[in-house]
Design brief:
Length: 475
């Protein structure tokens, strides 16, 4: 059916309101940093805990989560969000103090300081950039476009919607920097979380809060070996996946590094953890389960279908604005962090130490947008978008985390030894992913991590003739 005029009007009004509020807030904010990198990529160190929490929450929570996790149509996927609480506490208590002590703009800058080598910083940045280009950027705009299609049943080509999301998201990232991204994240996050809870209530009300008829395996939190998340994976690779994502991933951690003080940043991270614990699990599984009872196993179309059916016309316009904001904020967050990695870790170290940051970031952003659009057709053929993302993340997540672990725990380790471990780990996991996966991919992530750490230490001793020394608080 065609979108009604009232839906379009509400959608445009709410979207414009978020944009206007963001502009007013950013215009009034003082410019606290003279260094252009700090100002553009870390908001001049001026984010309060409220905006840290809001930006972290909505950068992570987008249509790849709402569509992808609800698309599994089972309660089991809530474990990803519950485990994320632990990951956020690890960020606040272990990693953030180190980033602030070393005055880092990017997470990878810490690696250069720990290993005393700029090349390892560049290598890890390239891996992050590749993951953003080929995994997250296309996945976000694809799931956003898919949601709009399935919710409103609009007769618009998917790639047209993809292009619209990409262009508007790029505009935020280019013209506003992290400050605009974080502020719009927070305003949009309040709207999205509120509307998502409304969807949960209305979905349950539609079935009179009666989940009878839904198979037990879709309601349990203890997954068997055939489920997407077997219970034993929670005891192996899950905690390290969360540590990598929340504590070393530039897209997320950048927000927590943008406060004036460590204490202010930690408050924001703790607030994000509370939101993650109390609100997010329900909104990423309950609508999908209800959709299973109503429509059967319809996969990634579940969330858009049920939202379109249960929300009244005017409210669906508000929700569409919230979803659009979630897509845009996640997309522009990825673009901003990717530009930071390229500018700070690669361009300034190897090409030009004093570039025009805004102009260069704009060029990088345009390139990333084009690549992400071209990658969208790959995701259209996925059985489960969220499972595909998690599996592909494994190609770089554990090798990257191993470099941080070795760098933080040991002294006297050559950067090239860690690079050897990264190359081997990435190649090994690629083999397991695309050729032969003997056990669940989350178990393989732990094995890959341990292997990478061992290879780094062995290569340091056998190839470079140096003995790693366990780092103490005094060193």
């Amino acid at each position: 059916m065609q979108l009604e005029l009232v839906q379009i009007s509400v959608f445009l009004a709410v979207t414009a309101m978020i944009g206007g509020m963001t502009y007013i807030k950013c215009r009034a904010a003082p410019r606290l940093a003279t260094d252009s990198n700090k100002e553009y990529f870390l908001a001049g160190g001026g984010l309060s805990w409220v905006f840290v929490a809001g930006s972290i929450t909505l950068t992570n929570l987008s249509t790849d989560q709402l569509v992808g996790m609800n698309g599994n149509q089972m309660a089991l996927l809530a474990w990803w969000e519950l485990a994320a609480v632990v990951g956020l506490f690890i960020l606040a208590k272990i990693f953030l103090p180190v980033y602030y002590k070393n005055n880092c703009t990017t997470t990878t800058e810490l690696l250069e300081k720990r290993y005393g080598d700029k090349n390892i910083r560049a290598v890890i940045s390239v891996l992050f950039l590749l993951a953003n280009m080929f995994i997250f950027l296309p996945a976000v705009i694809y799931t956003g476009a898919l949601f709009m299609q399935s919710m409103f049943q609009v007769d618009i080509n998917l790639m047209v919607l993809v292009l619209a999301f990409a262009l508007v998201g790029a505009a935020y990232a280019v013209f506003g920097g992290l400050r605009a991204v974080a502020v719009s994240d927070t305003y949009s996050g309040i709207l999205l979380l509120g509307m998502s809870l409304v969807v949960v209530y209305l979905a349950l009300d539609t079935i009179d809060f009666d989940l009878s008829g839904v198979p037990a395996e879709r309601l349990t939190l203890i997954g068997d070996d055939q489920s997407p998340l077997p219970w034993h994976t929670l005891l192996t690779g899950m905690i390290f996946i969360q540590t990598f994502y929340w504590s070393t991933n530039q897209t997320i951690t950048q927000r927590a590094m943008a406060s004036k003080t460590l204490a202010e940043a930690q408050k924001g991270v703790y607030a994000a953890a509370v939101i993650r614990l109390l609100i997010v699990p329900s909104i990423i599984v309950i609508p999908g389960i209800v959709a299973y009872k109503l429509y059967g196993d319809i996969g990634d179309a579940a969330y858009g279908r049920i939202v379109g059916d249960i929300l009244p016309g005017w409210l669906s316009g508000v929700f569409a604005a919230a979803i659009a904001a979630a897509v845009l904020t996640t997309y522009n967050s990825l673009l901003n962090s990717s530009a930071a990695l390229y500018v700070c870790d690669i361009h300034e170290n190897y090409i030009d130490s004093q570039p025009n940051v805004r102009k260069l970031s704009a060029v990088v952003t345009v390139c990333l947008v084009l690549i992400s659009i071209l990658m969208v057709p790959v995701y259209q053929g996925a059985d489960s978008i969220i499972n595909l993302i998690q599996e592909l993340w494994g190609l770089v997540s554990m090798p990257i985390l191993s470099v941080f672990i070795v760098g933080l725990l040991f002294d006297n380790v050559k950067a090239n030894a860690a690079i050897i471990a990264v190359v081997l780990g990435t190649s090994l996991y690629a083999f397991f992913t695309f050729v032969w996966m003997p056990i669940h991919y989350i178990h393989m992530m732990l094995i890959t991590l341990l292997l990478c750490v061992a290879v780094a230490l062995l290569a340091n001793r056998m190839v470079f003739g140096q003995t790693a020394k366990l780092r103490t608080a005094q060193r």
